[in-house]
Amino acid sequence: MLITREKYECEILAIFERQEQPIGSGALSMMLKEIDFPLSEASVGRLLGEMDRKGWTEKLGYQGRVLTDAGKRRLQELRIRKKRIFYSTRLLNSLNVEDKENLIHVLEARRAIERELARLAALNASDEEIALIKKNYLDQARQTAQGKLSSNHDVDFHRAIASAARNNVLAAALDVIQQDGQVAPVLEYIRSKVGGNLVVEHKQILDAISNKDPEEAERRMIEHIESVIADVEKYWITAVEI
């Protein structure tokens, strides 16, 4: 949800947008109470004073205030923010890895996003970005060889590829999925039980990106995610049999 102040800003600006005539603070306070946003006339007056200073509203003498073009842009910004928070929250709530179906849905979403990120990374990655991807791969390989948990390096490896892809929308989508800290450790545990080889698959992706081969990078990423999906399926069969 939006923080309280932004909720009030959004509702007040929306009321101004709907009105054809200037509105005074008293009338605005009554309108807010009608939609369960109670604010005293004094509090409304203070908010409106701030909106005037920011250029979102304009006072027309004793008639009241009207919405400015800057106010319309601010209202649109708040509405977009509200939608983003709603859909991000819904997505995060869907990242329940306690059952096979939801975990596979998460992986299918990653497959759709990361195949393109890998392709773009092969096209756009700088030498420094490739070096970072390689560092994350080597850190993970070293941790794995020592029998230590490496899920944090797995997250860093995929995030470095997303950054190198230079597509902020896709990178943000992947970041939302990876915000659920349960996913990477659960996948690492599952793959360790069924013999999946994460390090080898990451090396193949790294090589394709280093060679600036977008088709190969995309293919290797798809194979990687599908291998993880297959391991999840295999693990659940084994778990059921036990």
Question: Keywords for this structure?
Answer:
242 residues; Arc Repressor Mutant, subunit A; 2% strand; Four Helix Bundle (Hemerythrin (Met), subunit A); elongated; 78% helix; 2 domains
Secondary-structure blueprint:
Blueprint: H1 4-18, H2 25-34, H3 41-54, E1 57-59, E2 65-67, H4 69-94, H5 100-124, H6 127-145, H7 151-165, H8 168-178, H9 183-194, H10 198-210, H11 214-241
CATH class descriptor name of the largest domain:
Mainly Alpha
Q: Could you estimate the helical fraction of the residues in percent? A: over 70%
**DSSP, total strands:** 2
Q: Tell me which oligomeric state these chains represent.
A: single chain
Model regions low in confidence, pLDDT < 50 over at least 5 residues: none
Gross CATH architecture of the largest domain: Up-down Bundle
* pLDDT averaged residue by residue: 86
H/E element order:
HHHEEHHHHHHHH
| Percent of residues in β-strands | under 5%
By helix and strand content, what is the structural category? mainly alpha
Radius of gyration: 25 Å
Profile the largest sheet. Answer: 2 strands, antiparallel
What count of domains describes the coordinates? 2
Q: CATH fold name of the largest domain, please?
A: Four Helix Bundle (Hemerythrin (Met), subunit A)
Distance between the termini: 43 Å
The dominant shape is elongated
By CATH's scheme, which homologous superfamily of the largest domain applies? GntR ligand-binding domain-like
Please state how the strands of the largest beta sheet are arranged side by side. Answer: 1-2
Number of helices: 11
